[in-house]
Specification:
The complex is a heterodimer of chains A (about 1000) and B (about 230). Chain A has about 1000 residues and is α+β, with helices and mostly antiparallel strands. In chain A, about 60% of the residues lie in helices and about 15% in strands. Among the domains of chain A are: about 100 residues, no CATH class; about 140 residues; about 180 residues, no CATH class; about 190 residues, no CATH class. With about 230 residues, chain B is of the alpha/beta class. Chain B contains 6 helices and 10 strands; from the N terminus they run E-E-E-H-E-E-H-E-H-H-H-E-H-E-E-E. Chain B has one domain: P-loop containing nucleotide triphosphate hydrolases (Rossmann fold, 3-Layer(aba) Sandwich). Classes of the chains: A alpha+beta (about 1000), B alpha/beta (about 230).
């Protein structure tokens, strides 16, 4: 445009740069924010696609419940649409790393000659070269508890550990990013530990035992790399390949099943044979023992008989002795009597004396001999008696030993029988399970990336940003429209006479309007181009940087998405032009003659507050002017209030977001749960295992924890944990069940069913409604029939979803009694106390896992870090909004009131008084805007929080008083800054202006 | 010593390389209580004179005194106080604050002065007691100028400075305003300086100062000034 009209246009740009800049800046802010936020989602998805393609992330994962054979892998390779297949081993273990236990998924790296999928990107160290080496995640949010060269000890496995892996101790040789695990907060679920995978481990295939079959196979789909991961064309290709793979699965299933059957049957038969042998051996042993016992019994009997005989002999001997003694004594006595009689007869017979003396001596000799003989006999008898005594004692001993052996025998018999019975039972059960296997059970699970928790989580976070992006920039566009409206209205007013002149000269209305439209277009196009160019690079980068704390996806190039950029620019330029047109239209309708006259100043009007006479009378004129002006210039009022409200709302949203995440930690671990360690016992262990552990903790409560799936009315599944406390009172001492609003306690007794708040809101249920629970299968999906429980309370909770079910309620619904295998307890908070406890607890036989809360707390502290960057963005945006709006308002106020200001100066107003005269309005509007912004901020923050929340977390719902204060104070500070800057302009107003006419 | 004294006052504006003397060695005196008309064609330096006398601009050289106080050489702060306390200003275009009623416009001035006159009384004095609660937009030009005069008077200033007070008014109204100013001067003994290009006004002045090309061309004292009502132009 080289016409005078064009020059005039160009000069009006250069002559009022402030105005031009104001429009350009607010449009830049609006368009930039909109475009930047909207492009974040595609940029994130693009980065993901590039990352997945670059690392050959599997398009399809095939999991074979019965394992994969080389032939299966071959069949898979032959599937149409599949371009590469990598078979792999996988198992879940509990591992001790740096003194803490983690649930770890162990993967095998590619075998030699096999294509390498899900390629790791080493961050540190090297890949494993030996069977006992491993690499682990470099992305663990809490920082790795081990370093290169440290050992990882496996303690437990989903299968038999020693039959699965060749070693229990691995050496960490490197840290890697794994495309298969892009999200370090969502690595998948497991039946071990707390239920979720916390760490991954890649080992050489040789680390798995030789006869372990492949657990799964990863596959690339032909041509899928050329498509955008997740979009329709990609999905079509993958779906086709999946369908083909499923077809192959159906073909292979009978064979697989048969093979598995045969193999398992063989093992079972072997087991059965072994069992039989074992049984026979056991019985043989038992029979031997029986025979020995019998022998012993016979021996005892014999010796008993012997003793009886001996006793009888002894008695007979004694009697015989007595009889002989009597007989001999009688004989001797008779002989003596005979001698006595002979002596009497032969008294005085010579020789008789001698003869008789001889006889007497002979008799005495015989008597002495007899006595000696008897004594000998007596001694023999008493010896026999002693021997008998000994024999008796021996017998008693023998009998006791026999009894003992008998008891032992009985015991071992019972034990052997029960062992045999349970072995048989197990064999029978395995047999039953084997017999019960159908072809369906042999079918492969063919899964695409939609089943990859990390990728899904990344994608849904990207879309979450997009939902926020669709609402958030609205406020900027609204303010842009208002800024354009007020600014252009002012411009048109200023050029009133000029417009009249153009009109009088014969320029058409359209031509004149076009000047303002072109002006506005120039400003808004400049702004939108600058804003979009800058923010489409900055915002996605900042947000991805924030997310990089959680996700391993490296940011790719940030292309400008043309449709979004055009939409943003269109919106920005569109609202500006619309506002400009509205501003120009009214003036242009007036007659030229009218326009040539200075416009009658907008008449003063009485306002409502004036009705309050006493108040009004006391107000100074500047307050009166301020108050009347507020209502006089409604557009400016609206612009400023909305602009400032936007600023305050953005600040409050940012600060509130921080509060929300802080609250997760502070409330969950400060107010709600007071335990800091969870110990679980093995399912097979005795129930008193945990009692033993309980001796090492301060306060403890037992409960049954069971992973479940709750189903929403819409049919979506939510994974959650059902907790059945043993003693509700002890449990609630460690886990305060309360309502979020008012903190009223939620009752928990045997009949209670208390759900956590987030679960209740996801399911859309409340007190009195039904909670339908399904058990989880191996993959964590709902299995079996749903069981309905009636909800009796909803409790505040921030992390994970729980249902607390009373013992009786559990018994009634599930028809079994709970097994309390989880212990919640408190131990000292120091690292050494943790270590000591962990050691003590793991020393108890049957303890499965020991988990401290610190880990979870660390996760959320990390999340907080990523939010901090977002807060910085919000604060900058808020400041920009406040600056633009207040700058524009002050600018308009000053240019419009130049005469008024000059007059006041002439009247002798001091600089301070003049500043206040103008700024009182700014301040009042700022305060009104602030208050409105706090209200708007509550809504906005609520929206962002609910949108950003994931299923298993509830962010804090309260914005702290300090954040309100800070948002308020910061806004005022921004306003103060603008006022300070604009003071110079106010001071420059020349008093001579007051002498000029009114145009 | 005269009430107002201009001694060899010059005001030079630099416009790039060129220096323009708007006022070039101007000297005159005004006595207390006089009704003075400063008259001259456009560009004669009337406005510059007004700016300097009104404390809105300093002079390049020379000295200006009012009631014995030197104004030339005052700093910004002192000038503000001077305008605030000593000068009542009446503008060609009234310069009322549209958002304030007549009374509030008067109070606007009186609220910043230590010894103001009562707003309602002053309004009554200028004949607008009944319109005190009206906004400027609801008043005619003459009425607005009366409010402006009332605003200037309410400050109880030493000097009433009027810049073309009738410039935006019709003949009859203009005359009435001149009469009001003259009456005010007569009734209150206040010094009034009216700046105009209309030499007809000279007839009603006690003292007439003719300005031409930045200098005082002539100064005359009317022994018997005419009444404003009889004035015709």
């Amino acid at each position: 445009m080289t016409s005078s009209f064009g020059k005039n246009l160009l000069r009006s740009v250069t002559g009022s740069l402030g105005r031009f800049v104001a429009i350009a800046a607010i449009v830049a802010l609006g368009c930039g924010f909109y475009a930047g936020l909207r492009m974040t989602c595609p940029d994130m998805l693009l980065s993901a696609d590039a990352y997945y393609d670059g690392s050959d992330l599997c398009d399809v994962r095939v999991v074979a419940p019965l394992g994969l054979e080389e032939a299966d892998v071959e069949a898979l390779r032959a599937v149409e649409g599949v371009s590469a297949v990598m078979p792999a081993y996988e198992t879940d273990v509990m591992a001790t790393m740096g003194g803490e236990q983690y649930a770890v998924r162990v993967h095998s790296l590619a075998e030699e000659g096999s294509p390498e999928l899900n390629r790791l990107e080493l961050a540190e160290g090297r890949l494993p070269e030996r069977a006992d080496e491993c690499v682990i995640s470099a992305d663990r949010v809490m920082g790795s508890p081990v370093g290169v060269g440290d050992a990882v000890t496996l303690t437990e496995c989903t299968q038999e550990l020693d039959d699965t892996l060749v070693t229990r101790t691995f050496t960490v040789v490197g840290f890697a990013h794994a495309p298969y695990y892009v999200a370090s907060t969502a690595m998948g679920s497991t039946s071990l530990g707390s239920g979720s995978i916390q760490q991954f481990m890649y080992v050489l295939p040789g680390a798995f035992c030789e006869d372990v079959p492949y657990a799964e196979a990863f596959a690339l789909v032909e041509g899928a790399k050329d498509e955008f991961s997740g979009d329709e064309a990609y999905q079509r290709l993958v779906d086709a390949a999946c369908a083909n793979a499923e077809g192959v699965s159906a073909e292979r299933a009978p064979g697989s099943l048969a093979r598995f059957r045969a193999q398992t049957q063989a093992t079972l038969d072997e087991a059965r044979a072994e069992y039989a042998a074992e049984r026979d051996r056991a019985y043989a042993e038992l029979d031997d023992a029986q025979a020995q016992l019998d022998e012993a019994a016979a021996a005892i009997e014999a010796s008993e008989a012997r003793i009886a005989q001996g006793q009888a002999d002894y008695y007979a001997g004694t009697a015989e002795l007595a009889r002989q003694r009597a007989a001999v004594t009688e004989q001797l006595d008779a002989a003596e009597a005979q001698i006595d009689a002979q002596q009497e007869q032969s008294a005085g017979v010579e020789g008789a004396e001698v003869y008789l003396g001889g006889a007497r001596a002979e008799l005495a000799g015989r008597r002495a001999q007899a006595i000696a003989q008897f004594a000998a006999a007596e001694q023999a008898l008493s010896q026999a008696a002693d021997q008998l005594e000994d024999a008796r004692a021996q017998l008693a001993e023998g009998k006791a030993a026999y009894e003992r052996n008998l008891a032992r025998y009985e015991e071992s018999r019972v034990e052997a029988e029960s062992q045999l019975a349970s072995a048989e039972d197990e064999i029978n059960r395995s047999q039953e399970a084997l017999d019960g296997l159908a072809e369906d059970d042999a079918a492969w699970l063919v899964m695409d990336r939609a089943k990859l928790t990390g990728a899904v989580s990344f994608e849904s976070d990207a879309h979450r940003i997009d939902s926020i992006a669709q609402v958030f920039p609205f406020i900027f566009f609204l303010v842009a429209a208002l800024v354009a409206l007020t600014t252009m209205t002012r411009m048109v007013e200023e050029e009133r006479v000029l417009i009249g002149t153009f009109k009088a000269l014969g320029y058409s209305r359209a031509r004149i309007t076009s000047k303002y439209l072109v002006y506005a277009a120039a400003a808004s196009v400049t702004g939108s181009v600058a804003g979009i160019a800058l923010m489409s690079q900055v915002l996605p980068a900042v947000i991805m940087e924030a997310y990089s704390i959680i996700y391993a996806v490296p940011p790719a190039a940030l292309p400008i998405d043309a449709p979004i950029a055009l939409a943003a620019a269109g919106l920005g330029v569109g609202v500006t032009l619309l506002a400009t047109f509205a501003a120009a239209a009214a003036t242009l309708r007036e007659q030229p003659a009218h326009l040539m006259l200075p416009r009658a100043p907008k008449a003063g009007k009485r306002i409502l507050i004036e009705r309050i006479r006493p108040l009004w009378r006391r107000a100074s004129f500047s307050w009166k002017v301020t108050l009347r002006n507020l209502f006089r210039y409604k557009k400016r009022f609206v612009m400023t209030v909305i602009g400032i409200a936007g600023c305050t709302a953005l600040l409050l949203t940012g600060l509130g977001l921080q509060d929300s995440i802080n609250d997760i930690i502070d409330k969950q671990f400060g107010e709600i749960v007071s335990y800091n360690v969870v110990v679980t016992a093995d399912a097979a262990a005795d129930e008193d295992v945990l009692d033993e552990v309980g001796e090492h903790v301060g306060v403890s409560a037992l409960a049954q924890e069971e992973p479940m799936v709750a189903r929403t009315q819409a049919g979506a599944d939510v994974r959650m944990t059902m907790v059945v406390p043993e003693d509700p009172d002890a449990f609630t001492d460690l886990w305060a069940l309360r309502e979020r609003m008012g903190h009223a306690p939620v009752a928990l007794d045997g009949e209670s069913v208390v759900v956590t708040e987030k679960l209740a809101s996801t399911l859309g249920i409340g007190v009195g409604d039904e909670l339908v629970l399904f058990e989880q299968d191996v993959m964590g999906n709902a299995a079996g029939a749903g069981r309905a429980l009636k909800v009796t309370g909803v409790a505040e909770n921030y992390i994970a979803n729980y249902a607390f079910v009373g013992e009786e309620a559990y018994g009634t619904v599930f028809g079994r009694s709970p097994e309390y295998r989880t212990l919640f307890g408190t131990v000292g908070s120091s690292a050494s106390a943790h270590e000591a406890f962990a050691e003590a607890a793991r020393a108890v036989d049957g303890v499965k896992t020991v988990t401290f809360n610190d880990e979870t707390i660390d996760t959320y502290r990390t999340m907080l870090k990523s939010v901090n960057m977002v807060v910085v963005v919000l604060v900058v945006a808020a400041a920009a909004l406040a600056f633009i709006v207040l700058y524009n308002l002050t600018n308009i106020n000053i240019t419009e009131r130049v005469r008024e200001i000059a007059t006041l100066k002439v009247l002798g107003f001091t600089r301070r008084e003049v500043d206040l005269y103008i700024y009182r309005e700014t301040m009042l509007l700022t305060v009104i805007g602030c208050v409105a912004g706090l209200l708007l901020g509550i809504v906005l923050e609520g929206f962002v929080v609910v949108t950003a929340e994931v299923d298993y977390v509830m962010f804090g719902r309260e914005i702290h008083a300090a954040s309100f204060a800070a948002a308020f104070a910061l806004t005022l500070a921004f306003a103060a800054f603008v006022m300070l800057v604009m003071r110079g302009k106010l001071a420059k107003v020349n008093m001579v202006e007051s002498l000029k006419s009114n145009e | 010593m005269a009430f107002v004294e201009f001694r060899e006052v010059s005001k030079v504006y630099r416009m790039g390389e060129v220096e323009v003397a708007a006022v070039d060695g101007m000297s005159f005196e005004i006595e207390r209580g006089e009704f003075v008309v400063v008259v001259g064609p456009s560009g004669a330096g009337k406005t510059t004179l007004l700016n300097m006398l009104g404390g809105m601009d300093g002079c390049t050289s020379g000295s200006i005194t009012l009631d014995g106080r030197e104004i030339s050489g005052m700093d910004e702060r002192a000038l503000t106080q001077y305008r605030r306390l000593d000068i009542g200003f009446v503008f060609q275009f009234y310069n009322l604050v549209q958002n304030l009623t007549a009374r509030e416009n008067v109070e606007l001035a009186s609220q910043i002065c230590p010894e103001p006159l009562d707003a309602d009384e002053v309004l009554a004095q200028v004949g607008l007691g009944h319109r005190a609660d009206n906004f400027p937009g609801q008043l005619s030009g003459g009425e607005q100028q009366r409010v402006a005069i009332a605003r200037a008077l309410a400050k109880n200033p030493k000097l009433l400075l009027c810049d073309e007070p009738t410039g935006a008014l019709d003949y009859q109204t203009g005359k009435a305003i001149l009469a009001l100013l003259q009456d005010t001067c007569r009734a209150t003994g206040r010094t009034v300086v009216v700046i105009t290009h209309n030499s007809a006004f000279t007839a009603i002045a006690d003292r007439v100062i003719h300005v031409r090309e930045g200098r005082v061309a002539a100064m005359e004292v009317n022994a018997h000034p005419a009444s404003a009502e009889t004035l015709e132009w």
